[in-house]
Amino acid sequence: MAFYEAMAPRSVVDLPRAVSPPFEVFLNGVPQTQGEDFEVRGPMLVFGKPLAEEGRLGFWRWLSLFLGIAGTYRQNDSVDVVYSRGGQRVVASNLPIREP
Hints:
By secondary structure, this protein is mainly β. It is built from 2 helices and 8 strands; from the N terminus they run H-E-E-E-E-E-H-E-E-E.
């Protein structure tokens, strides 16, 4: 069963303009497999599971972290793409994640 038949897209990451196949995709430093973990649809990566970025910390949250009162346990995914440009390997890291 194909990726797009198995699950609806949950998260989208736009590829930088310079990226062209072949390239590698990493989610939180773990290699991802096209067709199993994500699909390429035009200039974007489509993931079948929800991904999230923590976003900016407010003053009180930052202060509580600084004082050691509370930690941060929010989901904070990072998508990186490794590709070739001019014969050299380039990493596009921490690409923005959005909903489809």
